[in-house]
Amino acid sequence: MLSNSLIELDREHWIHPVASYRGHEKAGVRVLRSAKGATITDASGKQLIDGFAGLWCVNAGYGHDSIVEAAANQMRELAYATGYFGLGSEPAIRLAAELAERSPGDLNRVYFTLGGSDAIDSTVRFIRYYQQARGKPQKDQFISIEQGYHGSSTVGAGLTALPVFHAGFGVPYDWQHKIPSHYTYRNPAGSTPDAVIAASLAALRAKVEAVGGAERVAAFYCEPIQGSGGVLVPPPGWVKAMRELCRELDILFVADEVITGFGRTGPLFACEDEDIVPDLMTVAKGLTSGYVPMGAVLMSQKVYAVIADGAGAAAVGHGYTYSAHPVSAAVGLEVLRLYDNGLLDNGRKAGARLMAGLASLGDHPLVGEVRGRGMLAAVELVTDKARKTPLPATSAPAQRIFDRAWDKGLVIRAFGNGVLGYAPPLCCTDSEIDAIVERTRATLDETL
Ligand code: PLP
């Protein structure tokens, strides 16, 4: 009864993110009631394993008392503090320092945001400022990658390269350019690591030339593993090769670790997998494990110094009311403590089990490819394995698969192009990982 009235209220009032508004009104909302660990309970009392950690974010799992305590204590102590006017709070200062210590190389400067989209927005503003401050204002072109996702803000949606974020919104802008993805499963350049890396390097060089040469290009953005594009894992060496080319061309390299950060692929940051240091890095999601909103831009000393010296005594005019919110920072500190105290280790162990389990689905007639790293994975479905024929590019089959998995007690991401996405909480037990795999197989059997 309660659920029915909620469905009505939702239908009439809540505009949901990235949804067919009319389709959602028809289908009605699924109300979630509570969650603990990797298990969520819906309003009907049905229990499901959350194979997607909310939206790739609840890395620590739900209902963690120490995180709740950290938030509650901070709210009692100091519910809000701005970073404006030379003020600050202890948790924000400590979190900035902890992030600087744990991040690669000289990414020692931290700008706090509310999530990933405004972290990306902030990088665009900082990069423009940086290029102007060093006397190169003509370096104002930005390059990102097809199938990449960098949020859905007015500017970030144009760096994003998924059509649904563009259609009807007037983006991308003419200073935002794309090169093809490294997507190996159907790469026209071939699927060997060398071929994919060579194709991406050539594509970046060609794009730089096409937009007027390196003296016009400000920055290149990539995700160490493309998430929302369908968990597209570049071959080993790809990230490093692209980073090196950017250095050679004097183009800032931005690693968007909003999904891959905080243990999702194994180490704290996926950049560590390739031993690279980006010029800027964006993080969010796992930073607070989704308990409260927070993101950050991690900036190299070099970029920071140019901006700081360029501004001199003037203020750098970029800020949000909720930047470095002390409650979010307190949560971030506690979540970092959990990563250190077993969560990263458990994620690595569970990730190996997840990848092995999903790989065992490779014999299924619907499974074209299984890919991923750690607790970030995808199963790409095909209607014909030999021809790699994709599922019809409409949302209907994906929604059916999502619904069937739900019936079996599993939440996964079913992308419109027939890719199933996995990003379970890092706290998953062996039996939860096994259940994710078994329920996926049962879902696929029913889909045949
Ligand atoms: N960048 C990447 C790689 C993401 O996956 C996302 C969100 O999924 C964002 C940026 C945007 O983050 P948010 O949704 O917190 O604004």
UniProtKB/TrEMBL annotation:
Protein source organism: Bosea robiniae
NCBIfam families linked: PRK05965.1
GO-annotated molecular function: transaminase activity
A Pfam short name: Aminotran_3
Signal peptide: none
Gene3D superfamilies named in the record: Aspartate Aminotransferase, domain 1, Type I PLP-dependent aspartate aminotransferase-like (Major domain)
Cofactors named for this entry: pyridoxal 5'-phosphate
Family: Belongs to the class-III pyridoxal-phosphate-dependent aminotransferase family.
Designated name of the protein: Adenosylmethionine-8-amino-7-oxononanoate aminotransferase
Superkingdom of origin: Bacteria
Keyword tags: Aminotransferase, Pyridoxal phosphate, Transferase
